[in-house]
Amino acid sequence: MRHRRGSPRAGRGLFLASTAALWLACGGGGELTAPTTGALEVTTSTTGPSPDPDGYLLTFDDVEVQPIGVAAAATLSDLAPGPHRVGLAGVSPNCTVQGANPRTLTIVAGETAAEAIAVVCAEAPPATGDLTVTTSTSGPSPDPDGYSVTVDGDGGRAIDVTGSVAITDLSAGDHQVGLGGIAANCTVAGDNPRAVTVVAGGVVAIEFSLECGAPPPARGTLTVTTATSGPSPDPDGYVFTVGGGPEQPIGAGATVTVANVEAGTTAVELSGVAANCSVGGQNPRPVTVPAGGTAGVEFTVTCEADTGRLAITTTSTGSPADPSGYTVRVDREPTLSIGANATRTIDGLAPGPHTVELGDIADNCAVQGQNPRNVSITASQTTAVAFTVACSATTGTLAIRVAGLPEGVRAAVTVTGPGGYRAELTSTETLADLVPGQYTMNAASVSSGGTTYAPSPASRTVAVSAGAAAEVAVAYAAASAPSLNLSIAGFNLTQSVQSFGNEVPLLSGRDALLRVVVLANESNTATPQVRVRLYDGGTLVETLAIPAPADTVPTGRMDGVLGTTWNALIPGSRIRRGLRLLADVDPSNATPEADETDNMYPSGGPQAQSVRTAPPLSVVLVPVRQSANQLQGDVTTANRDRYLDFTQRIYPIPGYQADVHAVYTTATPEPLQSDNANGAWNTVLSEMAALRLAEDSERHYYGVVRVGYGSGLAGMGFIGLPVAIGYDDPGDRGRIVAHELGHTWGRRHANCGGADNPDPSFPHPNGTIGRIGYDLTDGILKQRTTPDVMGYCGDPWISDYTYQGVMDFRGTAPGPGWSSVAQSTLLVWGRIASGRVVLEPAFRVVTRPVLPERPGAYAIEGSASDGSRVFGLTFDPTEVADDPRDGRHFAFAVPLDERSTARLQTIRLTGPGVGMAAVSAAPASLRAGPAKPASATLSAGGVTIEWDAAAQPMAMVRDARSGEVLSLARGGSVLLPAVVSVVELVMSDGVRSSTATLRVRP
User: Fold this and answer.
1) Environment class of residue 471 by beta-carbon count within 10 Å: exposed (0-12), middle (13-18) or buried (19+)?
2) pLDDT surpassing 60 at residue 49
């Protein structure tokens, strides 16, 4: 099969597209551009107690390309095909990338590679920093005993009046640093205590400057002591003043000495006390300092448990909202009720982290965001948390509006729906709380005072959706003599293509689309139902009720519009021999008609359907690798269905069973060419036929190749023999497979797109399908002007002619000539193309004999060295479709015992236009020396097989374990891409063969 650019119906052949554009079809065509780049999707996952806080940097080929989160995905596009390196940078020291980082992967043009990178993070070390406190004191009378440094009320670190103290391992964050024990004649410049922020891993410096004046002439010493009790002491201590002087810090349980206090009575005040704490006794309190002596004052502080409050707010949206509200639970405490739109405050919560969960949510409502949520309670403060709940309706309404009846006359309306729902109405009414789904309204005629009132519409099906209001209006009118008449023009069952007379037989077990054509004699707004009864022989097995597809009945046939027929999908379980159908329109007589006697089809009773059985398609897909250019056909177990999906849709097959062969290497010296000028396409096709016989298989063999050109030959297959080959283009491979399989089932070309040698019996103009087709998978009609798959036009379907021809071939075609028992045979094969005869070397193989089905004009004869006949047969070679060289091929497995094989010296082919061709075994006496021993060696590209081609020009290479043939190799050497451990090498000298089992050497 060939593809080409240009006019869809001009010139010869069907050509494969270049990378710039692919002309696929006649009658509209389409263009494809082969992809030249690929893409990569990278996903990250992170586990462990301390994930990297700022994520990572994605690297591609060791270049940082973009940030990526700890659990995220990123896609890189327009990547050149080939190997690349991908990894993560910016990973925290406590985290480790699992596996190689970076790692190597391969980008393929037109595909998206996927790579998952996992990171495990250990517990991160605590974040701490250091603090350096420096003092400088000036003035005539410095503090005689120095000072003390406090951090968050924690004191006791002595420091000279001019000195420095280092404090290490402070948690990162804000702290209060103060200077205490300051003599009364000294003053700190600036705040005391003062705020400082410690940076993780850093050192922060803070300096206190003090000025000390002359002390009073009469002075003494004062000691201030604090004692704190209770469950929640003040976390950062207090401050005190002496005689209204500057503040000094003091811990929650500490003593601070103040020198140079003026003798006499003074006041000491303690402040900076947390809200949950209270100072016992008088504050400030007087104290008398004796000259030259020491006085003391003690403050007792009591601290209650320090708690906070949590205010929980709910906001509900949508309709209907949850009528009973919700419950809220903090940690594992009992649940409390809260309204749908309300606020509830919970007191007495300990400071720190808590979880809050909203519960008892109605089925139609959902909490937006996290639930439960984490909150942090701060002492003596109110923390707010808000939950938003979105509610959606789960039911809908249906309003039935009745009009046109006189007062007192009751309507007759019935509504049915999901779950057995049924309601009977006599007037306008709105049905509420309906489960979403399809509801059918049926209205019947009513009579009053001798007048009959007819409803319109008599039946209507509507969809009721959650939260929505549907409506049906029923108008009654006094009935007059009807002029409308309904009838059924026919019906058909379509599995792929069908005439309306049902001439195309059905395939047992496969789904089918039933289309019933209802016609009216005049314009109308009728929406009648169609009833179809299915019978198995004489037994009724199912009754279908098909609603009207539109709000009118057509007055003429419009088969090409799906919405003009009453349609139903019939499951494959009903399609079997004995199936009969009977259809009638308006079975309940809901639509008044002029004639009620012609509503049934066929009028004589159920119509029998022609149903046949057929076996599934059994096929072996062979990826072919060309030694000449290393190109290999892309077919795997992962993509094999993409080759066969189109075949399954159009052909009369109940299914398929497809296996993927090991890679087959063809040793043709030149690669496949677009015009097959070198005959390489014929060689590969011939090898596929020999491969099938050598592997003793009755299945279809389809070789998948990759071509190295932009337009030209894309497929080739035998007519009537189950062997074909085709290219692997992702956008076209399915069509090529279907076309070439059609040839193997005896089909010739349809005259579309310049196809060679069109079938003169093809009945439809311009190679079109000529009937209405239907794609059961996509639910799409195929118009009569759609090209047939056996032509060279794109976007094809299948005609009734091709469909029934394939069905007849698969049901009645004679067997392939196999006997029932495998035995020793001689594989004799070759081809005739462009007047040139190729008689390939023969091989002795164990398989079932395959001989010509009938005598023919060509003869093959094997003879001994004395001229006596060893075997002989006549035949007509098999024709090849889509071959510009008009090739004809043959391949037979001739029963021949060991003694007869040993006598064989020459094989001759004679026939019209070829004269005679022969192949003979060269006598050993004429060889230059002993035959070179065969070998199998592991190499960089796979396994290299070598043998003496001078003595034995061709070798059949098998995987000794599976028995699959890996190559029919020529020239004394072949490189197999797959790594095998043991091979069986069958080497032919032209007529006889010898076998060696080789273990692959490193």
Assistant:
1) exposed
2) yes
